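Review form for a predicted model. The reviewer records the input and the model, then writes brief findings.
Reviewer: anonymous (R2)
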Amino acid sequence: YQTLLFLNKRGYAPFVICKKCGASKHCKFCSSSLTIHEFSDEKKSFLLCHQCNYKEKFENVCYTCKSKNTLGFPGYGIEKIEQEIKNIFPKARIVILSSDKVKKKELEVVISDIIKNKYDIIIGTQIISKGHNFPYLKTVGILNIDYLLNDFDFRSNEKAYQQIIQVSGRAGRKELQGEVFIQSFQPSHPVINMSITDDFAKFAEFELKNREKNFLPPFTHLISLIISSKFEKKAKDFSKDFATKILLNFPDIKVYGPAPSIIFKKNKLFRYRILIKIQKKKSSNKIKNFLMKKHTCNNVKMVVDIDPINFS
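Model under review:
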């Protein structure tokens, strides 16, 4: 029988930090940490930005204090999980399924080998959760669901519930009695409990009450504006002026920001966000039409996202 370990974290560790001075390695073009990949093979190991795909060879040297061999790797991605599993089960046939490890052309072959029971342990990211039927898969382990339950996105409960149900559905095919283990520091969390009982009606009621209480979709419309520029001051000044302009034209709507985006710098561009909240009862066509007109100036770009899926 087979076991699946699910963790939606690519690479070996999400960031690298110096244990001597506390500095971490960041992307040259984005305000995000570099993820270390292929750490088990020193010759192949590299650092990768998951925002812009900037890549550099990994060297165990701190950029800041120039100390050698002082870098630590907190957290874990699927490559670190693979290393731990190999230490515990050295004879197990192990395969990693992630976009870094398996290209599109190879995916069908790997899936076919899993179906034929050529692997004992499958370690996968989101790529593994969608619709595959593995007849010999008996046990599923969902690792670190807390990172999703405690995300800044208001849809975090919904995403966590969906992920647990999707991944759990891979176990127990072909007349097997499947078993699912969920790793969490919050085992009594209502979303986990409702996932265990697969009670979607109860979850929907719970989530809709929370959304209504906090004036969130589907009871309101959200409109996200991302203002970006190569020049930080231009992005900041335009954002302030435009937020004021919105309030003058539409004094009855809620405007949050501008504020630096969660990923403040992305692919050399500085980014500010304005978030607009409109009650469903009120017509949103006027504000939408207003936003769709050209407002930007040279070296400033604005992206309008109505009912956004991503808040980074």
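Findings: The first strand starts at residue 2 and ends at 6.
Further findings: The helical segments are 78-88, 104-115, 146-149, 156-168, 190-196, 200-213, 232-249, 285-292.
Recommendation: see findings above.
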